[in-house]
Structure formats: C-alpha cells, structure tokens
Amino acid sequence: MPEAQAPEQEFAINEEAAVAPEREIAVSEGEPLVEVTDLTVTFGGLTALDHVSFDIRRGEILGLIGPNGAGKTTCFNAMTGVYRASSGDVRLEGQTLLGKKKHQITRAGLARTFQNIRLFGEMSALENVAVGLDARHRTGMIGAMLRLPRHYREEKQIIERGMELLDFVGIADRALHPARDLPYGYQRRLEIARALATDPKLLCLDEPAAGFNPAEKEELMALIRTVRDEGYTVLLIEHDMKLVMGVTDRIVVLEFGKKIADDVPSAIQQDPAVIAAYLGEEADDVDA
Amino acid sequence: MSNHSPLGSVGATQTAIGEELADVTKKHKRTAALRQWWNDRSRLQQWLMLLVVVALAYLLPVINPPLITTEPANDFAISCFNMALYALVALGLNVVVGQAGLLDLGYIGFFAVGAYVAALWTSSDSTFVHIPYLATLPLAMIVTVVFGIALGLPTLRLRGDYLAIVTLGFGEIIRLLATIIPGLKGNTGFQNLGRPPGTNADGEALFTASNGLPWYWLVVTIIIIVAVLLGNLERSRVGRAWIAIREDEDAAEIMGVPTFNFKLAAFGTGAAIGGLAGALMGGQVGFVNNQKFDVPTSILFLAAVVLGGRGNKVGVILGGAIVAYIPLRFTELAAYKYLIFGIVLVLLMIFRPQGLFPAKAHLLTYGSRIRRWVKKEQAPAQPEGGPPPGSAPPAPGGSTAQSTRRARKET
Ligand SMILES: Nc1ncnc2c1ncn2[C@@H]1O[C@H](COP(=O)(O)OP(=O)(O)O)[C@@H](O)[C@H]1O
Ligand SMILES: [Mg+2]
C-alpha cells in the first residue's frame, strides 16, 4: 500500500478559511457593486424587461421579486449575457458587462444558479464544483497533458476548496455521487456551491428554494444569509414575497417587465402598487 | 458560527428520495461492483494488474490463441494490427464524441489526411521531398490538427444534428479531393510508402507489409502513450470542460468554461489522433489511394466508440478492437458487417445505451485520494459515540465532513 500513507492533512478541510471570497473587490462595503441602468429586453413584440434600473450594493442581499412572468429571470439572463439587451447597461465595478461573452462575465465576477436545475448530471458533486473553480484556473491543453506544476496546484485547490464549499452548503456527504443521482434538495444546494466556486463578486440565485416545503425554504434562506455574512453580495430572485422579507436588505419589485418598487422590505410590504401586483398572484396560488 | 449549514430537515426527506434513486441505478450494479472492487485495490495492485494486461496485449499475436485466431483466412498478426489501429481511432474519436459530445460523422477525413501525409512524404510515387517514415507520424498529426481547426472554426458554433451533417460533408470532401486533385493520384494511389527503420538478424527489413508483428507492437505502444496523455487531459480542467460541454453546453459556458475554445481543442486532439492512425495504416499497408475513406467506414469508427461505451478509454479501445475483429474472424460475415453492426447498435441503444463497457469518467487528479479520504471520514464516526454501525439512516442533513469539522472546532 505505497500511497495509503499520503499525508492526509494535505487535503484536510481548512476550517479557518471558511468560504469567504478570495479576490479583491474594487468598491467598498455599501457602495454600488452592480449598476443596472435602463435595461430593456424584447422578444419579438414582447417587452419582457422595460427600462429597469437598480443598484446592487456590495455586501447586501437584494431581493428581486414579482409575480410569475414579471421578467425576473429575463433580468438575470440579460445581466449574465444569456440574452442580449436591446438597450441599457449593466456595470460591474463601473465596467460594462454588455458585449462580453458569457464565460467572461462569469469570470469577471457574476455567477448564477438556474431556476430549473442545470447541473452536469454525469459528473460528481465535487466535479461540478470543480468546473466552477476552473473558471478561475488557467491550465490548458499543454499544462494538463504534461502535468505542469500549475496543474497540480489547481487540482489541489479543487479538492480543498471544493470540499469546503460542499461542506458549507451541507452536501459534503455526497461529494462523490453523480449530480443526477442526488436528491432534489442536494441538487439545489449544489447549484449554489458551483456558483460560489467561481468566486463571484455577485451571486445571483434564481428561485433557489423552488420546490421546497416551507421548513426547507426557511433553512435555505438561512444559508443565503450565511453566504452574505461570509462576505458575498447576493441577488435573490424569489416570487414568494413573504419568504424574502426576512432575508433581504432591499427589494426590487418587477411587474410586467417594469420596476414598480425599490425599497427596504418593511416599506415594500406597505407599498400599494406591490400589494396590488401580488393580489392577483395570491388568487393564482389558491387555484394552484 | 460553527454551523454553516442551517439545512437540517431537508436531509431527512432527501435520504428517502436518495434511496429510491439508488433503486433506479440498480441496473448498473454489477459494473459498479467491479469498479468499486477496482477502486479499492491499492495503486500498486492496480499497476501490477495493468502490467499483466499490457503484457498479454503485447503477446496476443505471439500466443495466437486457437478459436480466437483469425487464421487461416487472415494473418493473425496483421489482424491484431488492424484491431489496434481501430482501437487508436476509437480513442481519438472518443475525445470528440464521447467526451466533448460533438457528433463527428466525418472522422475518416482526418484518417485520410494522415494517410496521405505519410504517402506524400515517403512514397516513391510522390514528387515531394522525402522524409523518414517515423517523422511523418508527428507531421501527420500537425497537418490534421490544422485541418481539424480549419473545419472546427466555422462549424463548431453549430449544434448537434447540424454539426453531424457538416462533418459528414467534410469526410466526403476529403475523399473527393483525393479523387479530383491530380497530385493525389486518385484511384492509382501511392505505392511503396516508407516504413520504420530496423532489420532482422538475417538482415531483412523488420517492418514489412506481410509481417504484422512489429507494426502491431508499434501501435500498441502508441496507444499506451496516447491513453496516458488522454488520461492526463481527462483528469484536468480540460477533461472537465469537455464533459461539462457534453452534459450542458450553455450551463458550462455560464459557469465560465470558454466552450468554443475547448470544443476546438477536442476537435484538434481527435483530429491529431485520427491523422496518426491514418499514417500508421498507410505505412503498414504500404499503399494509399482514395478507396478506403468512405462514409461507412466513418460510421464504423463511430460504432466502435458507441459500442465500447462513449467517454470510457478502455471501453472504446475494446470497442475498436471488436469492430475490427468480427469481420476478420468471421469472414463469411464480413460482407454483412454493416448490417450486423447496425443491428448490434440498435439492440445496444435499446438494452444498454451506455455501451458495453460503461464507466464514469474520473475528472480529478486527486480523485483516488479524495475517495479514500471521504471513506475514512465516514468510517470513524462510530467510535466517537455515534450510532452503532448500520443502525439508522444518516442523521438529517448530517454531512460527515461538516460534523467532523464541527467536532474539530470544539476541541
Ligand atoms: N426566450 C424567451 N423567448 C420569448 N419570450 C420569453 C423568453 N424568456 C422569457 N420570455 C417571456 O418574458 C416574460 C418574462 O419571463 P421571465 O423573465 O421568465 O419571468 P419570471 O422569471 O419573472 O417569472 C414572460 O412573458 C415570458 O414568457
Ligand atoms: Mg423565472
């Protein structure tokens, strides 16, 4: 057993480092990290997003809420380069993101999860996270084929930080299971771990609690709060208004592609326009 | 803040769902058990067993086992060479189809380019400068990479079916060019290709068209080198990017994978190996013309990958060998080989879509260590006053690493 004695501390989870962001952010706490200005997205005749503007300040959890079809996911997609905005701008630390490729936007610091889970099914949980970590890695064909030192350094980081992240979201016990065999709740949390792995300046979560029961939702919201406490900035899409009230620092409300409110949760709760928008929604929920 | 994961009760329902899922995967239990057994061997044992397998592979044509042999119809050593050649081709195509998930129906085009490179630079019929045959192997790889990138640059933005059609066209274009361009001599072809140096004890050339043995050994050696290098790629950022692209290209791009570059890399890698195989074929046969590079052969290459289990190196090597072996062994069936492989593939798609030898790719360099580490983390939970072995299902949300971490923090 020649290799069994391999120093295992080498891969022990580093308890001190936790999962705090690893890179410098140009703006300071509380300053606008991302600025969305007059963002407009149209599909044929349909204006899914209509001159929407808001800021995301470093260190906060910003809720993006609105009834189904309000344009929340579209807003995410326009920010992360999936959809092309027909006008407006998205800036990260003052630099525009429009015109950049999707993978460049991710590496610039905008990571996201998907409303409908999109993991790499055949890959293990840890390997999924590794793909996220690879966003910040630079090993190419030659480096990998010849196993140059950087390759080893990056692989080692994957084991350490990858396990840390899985541990952080609470799914380390299934690190080696294929993502497609993971229980639903594990898959949702793996999406978050994979996005965190890219070391984002802004973490965008698209209805991360969809399909959860109320208790599970509460737990996920607590996790999101922990993510913020670690030093990340979070943009949280959720269509359940009650749920976001407790976690968010500020809330932007969309309806039919337009921003109808932008304020602290307590004020949003009183806002007549928001209440009106959600009245129809509540009726829908009862039907469903 | 010791409890990072405030997700207690989610785990409970999930354990149940997880067990249901385990049922679904029962089908793959047997291969899984074998794989588990293999993973449990120590690195030394694994290497020793591999060594035995490799030695047997080298000795196969010498042993010439009865029943398995392709004689008297076909010389067994030459048959072995052909099997090895198909295995090499399958290994290359597997990068494109199996790993990156790009359906390439024109892979034969790269094989052809490689063969023509060997012909043009070594054949007595060619007016080109002549170089030693062995030098044409890297040259063939370089030239085919250029072809691969030239084909990939405009086409790799296409998806699925479109890419398949375009690559199919590419294969045909190469074949037609070989017919049309006068310098490529169409059906007449090139004779007397060069071969590697070396003579027997009695002064005769070692590598000849009629002596398959040295050729076979050469290809097996090349397969080993290629497989090791591809294994290095697989367990790296590159391999992960390829599999991620295969699994969900859009999600990969959004997770920071420059998908276009990595698809091009897969195409180039596959092309290089295809070209290498083509040059080896040219050298062994000693003759290259436009007759061997048709679409059905290209489909046969694909069949080798699908048969073996796409994405799995060992599987596709066996797949390639089988596809070459069947018509050589059962010559009466050779005329029906496309029919037979067609039926086999259809049956396979119905009953075993993952191929004959499926295996989950390992994509981390330190994968085996982390497997061992996780196992160790999960094992010693009991002496610390945890539940007795095998009693209850894992505690709700109880991630092992997490609980040990908590424990460590408290001490
Ligand atoms: N790719 C698309 N093509 C056409 N219409 C779309 C597309 N994506 C979203 N939409 C439309 O844009 C509107 C907003 O959708 P979406 O952003 O998904 O809403 P939300 O996430 O707030 O529920 C909807 O009317 C939806 O039908
Ligand atoms: Mg949505």
How are the elements arranged and paired?
The complex is a heterodimer of chains A (288) and B (411).
Chain A (H helix, E strand, L loop, with lengths): L31 E12 L2 E12 L3 E5 L6 H8 L7 E6 L2 E2 L5 H7 L1 E3 L12 H10 L6 H5 L3 H21 L14 H14 L4 E5 L7 H16 L3 E5 L3 H7 L2 E6 L2 E6 L1 H6 L1 H16 L1
Parallel strand pairs in A: 3-8, 3-9, 6-7, 7-8
Antiparallel strand pairs in A: 1-2, 1-4, 4-5, 9-10
Helix pairs in contact in A: 3-5, 3-6, 5-6, 7-8
Chain B lengths: L9 H15 L4 H12 L2 H21 L12 H24 L8 H15 L10 H23 L4 H21 L31 H23 L2 H11 L1 H6 L4 H27 L9 H14 L4 H17 L1 H4 L2 H15 L15 H12 L21 H11 L1
Bound molecules: adenosine-5'-diphosphate and magnesium ion.
Description:
The complex is a heterodimer of chains A (288) and B (411). In chain A, helix 3 runs parallel beside helix 6 (184-197) and helix 7 packs parallel to helix 8. In chain A, strands 6-7-8-3-9-10 form a 6-stranded mixed beta sheet, sandwiched between helices. In chain A, strands 2-1-4-5 form a 4-stranded antiparallel beta sheet, covered by helices on one side. Chain A has one domain (7-12, 32-287): P-loop containing nucleotide triphosphate hydrolases (Rossmann fold, 3-Layer(aba) Sandwich), CATH 3.40.50.300. In chain A, 38% of the residues lie in helices and 22% in strands. The longest helix of chain A is centred in the middle third of the chain and has 21 residues, at 149-169. Chain A has 288 residues and is of the alpha/beta class. Residues 1-10 of chain A have low confidence and may be disordered. Chain B has 411 residues and is mainly α. Chain B has a domain at 85-294. Chain B has helices at 10-24, 29-40, 43-63, 76-99, 108-122, 133-155, 160-180, 212-234, 237-247, 249-254, 259-285, 295-308, 313-329, 331-334, 337-351, 367-378, 400-410. The radius of gyration of chain B is 25 Å and the shape is globular. Chains A and B meet through helix 2, helix 3, helix 4, helix 5 and helix 6 of A and helix 1, helix 8, helix 9, helix 10 and helix 11 of B. Bound molecules: adenosine-5'-diphosphate and magnesium ion. Residues 72-73, 115 of chain A line the site of magnesium ion. Chain B: Residues 385-396 have a biased composition (Pro residues). Chain B: It comes from Brevibacterium rongguiense. Chain B: One of its GO terms (molecular function) is branched-chain amino acid transmembrane transporter activity.
